[in-house]
Amino acid sequence: MSGAATDALRLAVELSRELKAAADQGDTQSAMRLDVARLELLKFARHEAAGAFGADERLMLREIAQLNDESLGLLEHLRRSKGRQLDMVAVGRRALVAYSSTRMQR
After folding, report:
1. Helix (H) or strand (E) holding 44
2. What are phi and psi of 76, to 5 degrees?
3. Exposure of 10 by Cβ count < 10 A (0-12 exposed, 13-18 middle, 19+ buried)?
4. What count of other Cβ atoms lies within 10 Å of the Cβ of residue 30?
5. What is the CA radius of gyration of the chain?
């Protein structure tokens, strides 16, 4: 396996760690930017290695996959939390409208 492919995987691991940190902080813009950069590195590594990854590279790929799963979980949690917040805002607006019309009738 080429040294360039190994270097690309090492950088992809670092980007995966940064991506997880961004997801943990709720920074979706940075997470998306890091994901795009990481994908390019993974494509490059696959092309350079021609699919023949050694044991060290497979370990790096496993770490990338694990960090990716954790990041996706964090982002999914954030998405659901935002959805609940939007639902609560809608409930509050409906209550305000209902209360306002009742108050005006008095």
Report:
1. helix 28-49
2. -65, -40
3. middle
4. 15
5. 22
> Contact, 47 vs 35, CB < 8 A?
no
Residue by residue, pLDDT tens for the chain (106 residues) are: 678 999 999 999 999 999 999 999 999 999 999 999 999 999 999 998 886 888 999 999 999 999 999 999 999 999 898 888 888 888 888 888 888 876 555 5
Q: Please state the pTM of the whole predicted model.
A: 0.77
Q: Taking a C-beta distance cutoff of 8 angstroms, is the pair 20, 38 a contact?
A: no
User: Backbone phi, then psi, for 67, in 5-degree steps?
Assistant: -65, -35
Q: What is the DSSP letter of 20?
A: H
**Neighbour count for residue 100 (Cβ, 10 Å):** 9
Polymer length in residues for the chain:
106
* Of 63, 79, 71, the residue nearest 23 (C-alpha): 71
**Tell me, what amino acid is at 29?**
Q
